């Protein structure tokens, strides 16, 4: 019986040892499972953050495309307006050149008119002078010998 008892004690010790090892493994597995669950939660949370970030990136990309389109349209409008402005400036410069030329012509015409006015004034003075001579000569001719009418040829 001693043998049986010894065997039972050894078996009990082995079972106890095996149970102790299994309990340690179970505790270890439970910790690993808890760690794994915690990692899954973290991964799930990080995955959601990534999904949210992707949504934000898509939204920002759409906004960026819209802004690029508006900038492109604005630039095209600006270039069109700039072209119109340059054409208008060219027309203004041409008109300024024509006005300058016309001004020069008018100055020349004004000078010519002033010369003609001076000539006309001189001719008027000459006519008045002759008229006075005629009148004086006519009075002299009426009162004088009558042979000369005051004309000298």
TrEMBL record:
Gene3D superfamilies: 1.10.287.2610. Residues 19-46 are annotated as: Disordered. Residues 19-43 have a biased composition (Basic and acidic residues). It comes from the Eukaryota. This is Uncharacterized protein. It comes from Fragilariopsis cylindrus CCMP1102.
């Amino acid at each position: 019986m001693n043998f049986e008892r010894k065997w039972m004690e050894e078996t009990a010790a082995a079972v106890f040892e095996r149970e102790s090892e299994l309990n340690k493994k179970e505790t270890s597995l439970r910790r690993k499972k808890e760690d794994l669950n915690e990692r899954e939660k973290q991964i799930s949370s990080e995955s959601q953050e990534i999904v949210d970030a992707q949504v934000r990136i898509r939204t920002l990309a759409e906004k960026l495309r819209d802004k690029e389109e508006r900038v492109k349209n604005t630039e095209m409008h600006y270039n069109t307006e700039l072209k119109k402005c340059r054409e208008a400036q060219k027309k203004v410069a041409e008109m300024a050149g024509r006005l300058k030329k016309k001004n020069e012509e008018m100055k020349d015409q004004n000078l010519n008119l002033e010369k003609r006015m001076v000539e006309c004034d001189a001719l008027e003075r000459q006519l008045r002078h002759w008229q006075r001579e005629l009148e004086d000569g006519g009075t002299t001719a009426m009162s004088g010998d009558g042979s000369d009418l005051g004309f000298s040829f």
